[in-house]
Specification:
Length: 223
């Protein structure tokens, strides 16, 4: 997490945030998510956020097959608060931004749309461990790396193995979870997993199942 945000606590975070519903986009604490903003309502959202605290809440719609998400369509309850750490404007009026993930949140109340985009009241309690992601207890690093090798090889994904193998466990889990092409429901399940180790274990299982299915091998049920 950048120096500008590493000293934040839950008490420093806003109870009301703008929401950016985007299917398949996973933002995790300490992760960085580049976004291409072109819809007018979200251009307005970015401008408002820039004029305030630069916070934006990433959330997934429950109907993953929609390209354009209406303001009345259902969304998940749990998302991740991000803070803009990079901003650029293109010649054709788009905004290119990067969000740094801070902490997960749960929506407590969806507010009326007043500026073209959604806002919500949110609670961060229950996700305090997101501020201490250096501790990853019970994570099997080598089985995770083995599953990652098999997944990348079978799906022909290029990865910087030297960087991945040198990365600390928190960075490894977060970067892989945000990068691999899982479906929206699987990404939401990772987001809602309680601990970072739980996220890593679920991600490993999902990669193993994807490999087995592509190879036509039945996946044993885990107990």
């Amino acid at each position: 997490m950048s120096k500008a945000t590493c000293d934040l606590t839950i008490d420093d975070l806003p109870p009301e945030i703008p929401l950016f519903p985007l299917s398949g986009a996973l933002l995790l604490p300490d992760g960085r998510l580049p976004l291409n903003i072109f819809e007018q309502r979200y251009l307005a959202m970015v401008e408002d956020a820039l004029g305030q605290d630069r916070f934006i809440g990433m959330i997934q719609p429950r109907q993953a097959d929609r390209q354009t998400i209406g303001n009345g369509e259902p969304i998940y309850d749990v998302g991740c608060l991000g803070r803009m750490v990079a901003f650029a404007e293109t010649d054709d009026g788009r905004y290119l931004i990067t969000l740094e993930g801070l902490v997960r949140f749960k929506i407590t109340q969806n507010l009326d749309v007043t500026k073209g985009y959604r806002n919500a009241l949110v609670a961060y309690h229950g996700f305090e461990n997101d501020f201490d992601r250096d501790r990853v207890e019970g994570f099997g690093r080598q089985p995770f790396i083995d599953a990652l090798h098999a997944y990348f090889s079978l799906f022909q994904i290029n990865g910087s193995w030297e960087a991945l193998e040198k990365a600390d466990e928190a960075t490894l889990i977060t970067s892989v979870a945000m990068a691999v092409p899982l479906n929206p429901e699987e990404k939401q399940a990772i987001l809602e997993s309680q601990t970072l180790a739980d996220q890593g274990e679920l991600l490993r299982s999902l990669m193993e199942m994807a490999v087995h299915e592509k190879q036509g091998v039945s996946t044993p049920v885990r107990h």
